[in-house]
Design brief:
Helix content is 75%, strand content 0%. The protein is an all-alpha fold.
Length: 166
């Protein structure tokens, strides 16, 4: 069986670093906004809001993974697998919000259109696909943990895309 506490510790560190990144970007944007002279037309592109949402979602994900790290996995295997599923969803949405904020900043900075398009594709196609994979793996772990707690083995579960019975 997989040690979810060890994995949660690594995810807690990753989300902590991403939280710092979102906070730093938000502070830099707000610093630039206050140092500029304000004009009558507001050209807010939504990047500060995306980064603010990403900051709090990543902060929540860090807290959730940190709590999961302290669990005794032998006694709480089923609950830990369910929490893994929920935490994966929070982390996926937070990363999407963070990358959306980066895309909005790149778009308004008049960067190369190819780089902006690549950032958009990563934000809209790649990251949600990877996030859904992690959610599917979490769901599979939840089913496996419930089957194991009932004293039976469930061969139908496993990582998505893997042939069953091989």
């Amino acid at each position: 069986m997989v040690d979810l506490a060890a994995i949660a510790e690594n995810y807690a560190q990753l989300t902590g670093v991403l939280t710092g990144l979102a906070f730093t970007a938000l502070v830099l944007i707000l610093t630039l906004a206050t140092s500029r002279e304000h004009t009558t037309n507001n050209t807010d592109n939504g990047a500060p809001l995306c980064l603010f949402i990403a900051f709090f979602a990543l902060l929540l994900a860090t807290l959730l993974y940190s709590v999961m790290t302290g669990e005794d996995m032998r006694q709480a295997r089923g609950r830990a697998a369910t929490v893994e599923l929920i935490n994966g969803l929070v982390l996926g949405l937070a990363v999407i919000a963070l990358l959306q904020g980066v895309f909005l900043l790149m778009r308004d900075a008049d960067m190369d259109p190819a780089a902006v398009m690549l950032a958009r594709i990563v934000t809209v196609v790649v990251v949600p696909t990877v996030a859904m994979y992690f959610v599917a793996v979490g769901a599979s772990d939840t089913v496996s943990a419930r089957a194991a707690s009932n004293g039976r083995r469930d061969d139908r579960t496993g990582p998505p895309g893997r042939c069953r019975g091989s």
